């Protein structure tokens, strides 16, 4: 761990690494502080709990899905709809790929998951936020005239993000255990969804 880095950065780096390697349940604040080269008291100067630290790791150390969705919803009509959906699918696929190994242990320990769910509610976060963000973006594009008025935007958001999440574990039991490469997967998901929501008759062009 580089001591020249600010303490908060070192703590986030250490938490990210430990959550990936030993799992969320075993990544105690004591072990995180030790790996960051600081005291546990110093850790609590920056983060109120391990739950908050976990949420900050998701927000600051993984692909920035939520900020992307917020920026697109704020300025609909920018770039092509297909390009935007492709980038959303790419970022979402990477986010789920990197976050699931960290969060997986939550589902093995009921008490741990309950504490994290409560922390997520208190901080206004949670796995539903990307769906809400993508839904908001689709509604903004509806208002801009690029998404059909009859489209169920929540369902469309759920389909895209659900496919990206499913990619994480659907191929673990196959013979190769290899996921579809994200740079091939994302455009295919985007084009397929686009065919159902775009105002254009032929979203792929002439």
Automatic annotation (TrEMBL):
Keywords noted in UniProt: DNA-binding, Transcription, Transcription regulation
InterPro entries found in the cross-reference section: Homeodomain-like_sf (IPR009057), HTH-type_TetR-like_transc_reg (IPR050109), HTH_TetR (IPR001647), Tet_transcr_reg_TetR-rel_C_sf (IPR036271), TetR_C_Proteobacteria (IPR039536)
Domain of life: Bacteria
DNA-binding region(s) in UniProt: 28-47
Stretches assigned to the HTH tetR-type domain: 5-65
PANTHER family in the cross-refs: HTH-TYPE TRANSCRIPTIONAL REGULATOR BETI, HTH-TYPE TRANSCRIPTIONAL REGULATOR RUTR
Name of this chain's protein: TetR/AcrR family transcriptional regulator
